[in-house]
Amino acid sequence: MSAVHELTGTQVVVDSAGLVRKRSLKAPIAFAVVAVIGLILAFVAGRSGESTYRLGDRTQSLQLPDVALPTAGTVIACAMILAAMAALTFVFAMQYKKIPLWFTVIFAVVGIFLFLTWSAAGGIVPVTGLLFGALSLSVPLIFGALGGVIGERAGVVNVAIEAQFLFAAFTSALVASITGSYVAGLLGALVAGALVAAILAVFSITYVVTQVIVGVVLNVLITGLTSFLHGALMQPNAATLNSPPRFPRWAIPGLSEIPVLGPVFFNQTLIVYLAYIIVPLVTWALYRSRWGLRLRAVGEHPQAADTVGIKVNPTRFWNLLLAGAIAGIGGAYFTLGSVGAFDKEMAGGLGFIALAAVIFGGWDPWRATLAALLFGFTKNLETLLNNLGSPIPSEFMSMLPYVVTILAVVGFSGKSRAPAASGKPYVKG
């Protein structure tokens, strides 16, 4: 028995053993689109000369030599690899097989390498600087995505990540400026993120208001509130209320000397090191602990969870506060780890990108983190390509992170299923 969904093109087949098998062409089509772009860059808009990759970093004692590659030959080779891999995804789909994560990662790496090599014809790509900037831009996305994963696993769609970013950034700058302590500013950001989440929880869980509507209203409200307070309070008193101390970088001896990757991952601030701890901790707890079992239960089947004695709405409420606090760490990174001051609307829509990372990552902490890293890399790539003098107009380069977001969500979100009760309020009968 088989059936085809008219809108998504997903074919569902029940085999002789009674197992349900699904076949969707969304992901193969997304792979094919990227492969076609690569072929166009290789054979239609080909560029000559050499593309140089700078592997050394001036902060390290060991300096690696630059690597110069022939632009045309390298781009053609990468385009052919992309085309072969895209064709293989259709084979996977015809055989009702999922595309492995490692396959997608390799495809993305080859595609990025192709685009970088093509754009850098006659120029130099500082690899360590590119990766360092990408990680810096990814940090708030990682914390926001983790907050989104926890919220949705509990059954609440956390559309208010942008509001949590902004309020946490504002509060951390204010508290750190007054106290002179970046640690106090970080604690203030935790409270601020949890406070926004508490408002979302009260309206969506207690008063059963549509979660998406509450989230959108909070985003607008916090954007307006922080913008007003910035102009009325912070700007006239910038020296005392908007000059927070920034987290210093702490180089880990030995590890920071690893070529290329050492300065990227092991010469960072406390907030980045917190991400190294929180991501695996949340992943382990979600799948291996009693807390994670209860969390997933109220997000998948709240009625069954209630039957075995789990208090559904209180569990959702407290976990949403935890999600808001984690997202608040991402907000603190804007002011205490990156910019060094608060500015209105400084989150720049990254809260929505974090929400897209949750969907792209299949509501899994590790995958959502990888998605956040991809989006952060794309955002930093925009800046690098503008500096390299890429022939692509700057307006199109500004669109690049959002095009990647749309392509990723449309092409790959269908591979994973959202928690069954996500977005659905629970009213005990």
Automatic annotation (TrEMBL):
PANTHER family: GUANOSINE ABC TRANSPORTER PERMEASE PROTEIN NUPQ, SUGAR ABC TRANSPORTER INTEGRAL MEMBRANE PROTEIN-RELATED
InterPro entries the record matches: ABC_transp_permease
Compartments in which it is found: Cell membrane
Domain of life: Bacteria
Signal peptide: none
Residue ranges of the TM segments: 29-47, 67-92, 99-121, 127-149, 156-176, 182-205, 212-233, 265-287, 317-334, 346-363
Coiled coil location: none
Record protein name field: ABC transporter permease
Primary localization class, coarse: membrane
Topology of this chain in the membrane: Multi-pass membrane protein
Record's keyword annotation contains Transferase: no
Keywords: Cell membrane, Membrane, Transmembrane, Transmembrane helix
